[in-house]
Amino acid sequence: MRTAVVIGTGLIGTSAALALSARGMTVHLRDADPDAARTAASLGAGTTEPPTGQVDLAVIAVPPALVGRVLADAQREGLARAYTDVASVKDGPRQDVLALGCDTTTYVGSHPMAGAERTGPLAARADLFDGRTWVLTPMPDTSTDTLNAALELVALCGAVPVLMDAAAHDRAVALVSHTPQVVASLVAARLEHAGENAVRLAGPGIRDTTRIAGSNPAMWVEILSANAGAVADTLEEFAADLTGAVAGLRALQAADEEKRGEGAVAVEDVLRRGNAGRARIPGKHGAPPTRYEEVVVLIGDQPGELARLFADAGRAGVNIEDVAIEHSTGQQAGLVKLSVAPAAIPTLAAALREHGWQLR
């Protein structure tokens, strides 16, 4: 591919355009909001000038409910040889595409499993899709050339392609993306009218749990509207588990020792199933989950400290697999948690102590 049109210059569309432009493609940008397209162009994502002829690929980066109509308009215009959309829901757009009589031989649905809490072109990054799964949901009559164009798009953006049925995709993202968004928002909503003293106690646990609750509500209403049934089904199962957990917690307050025991079993069952589910989440680079150990280091909040810490770990020959920072309330310091292979713990701990770091 040498040329593309990206229709919709929000986070995903602009990020794809940045990735394609960085690899030498000519990318034309369109958006219902001309200011958004101009902003994306100013970031180096492409040009707002219309193409002079048919392009190789049109990437439709609009909300799910608009995909069918935008595709139909683009095909009537003869805009591209192949078309894909990047909406986060696939079955609804598929049905719209069929109802509008679009040419499905030149169309393949897709969904890059990447995003951020911020939206719009200013939040875009050329490396947003690096190493991420990118789902493709071809129609029964999608041509080989069209599928190959979509696969090339995925490769140019640094992602990993996975082929799925559209309905199966929607059930999967309801479980791993859409339901967590609702649950995180429900947990964060408990904080809206909480007392100031309670909120001041918030630590990394509540921050991790509610991180995605900072996402754009209008955008998520569009996503959830397009996948409402699958999300509602998953939330009903969640609600049943939640009811059981509430009953178990109430039983823990009972005067009867036997009921307290039953309550403890019910609560422990929820926690154990949570352990089992979390253990199934793929680990680093999509590999099976790996157990790491943490070295916790006290660090000052000043420029260069993290770089010095990582450099000392590197000189010790230890690869840092993951890192997290827990900030101290009211102090100019924090705890850095370095996740490393268990066998590397003694080497790393000794090296860091030798360089004057305080370990906890």
Automatic annotation (TrEMBL):
Pathway: Amino-acid biosynthesis; L-tyrosine biosynthesis; (4-hydroxyphenyl)pyruvate from prephenate (NAD(+) route): step 1/1. One of its GO terms (molecular function) is NAD+ binding. GO terms for biological process: tyrosine biosynthetic process. It catalyses: prephenate + NAD(+) = 3-(4-hydroxyphenyl)pyruvate + CO2 + NADH. Signal peptide: none annotated. Keywords: Amino-acid biosynthesis, Aromatic amino acid biosynthesis, NAD, Oxidoreductase, Tyrosine biosynthesis. Residues 1-283 form the Prephenate/arogenate dehydrogenase domain. Residues 294-360 form the ACT domain. Its EC number is 1.3.1.12. It is an enzyme of class 1 (oxidoreductase). Pfam families: PDH_C (PF20463), PDH_N (PF02153). Belongs to the prephenate/arogenate dehydrogenase family. This is Prephenate dehydrogenase.
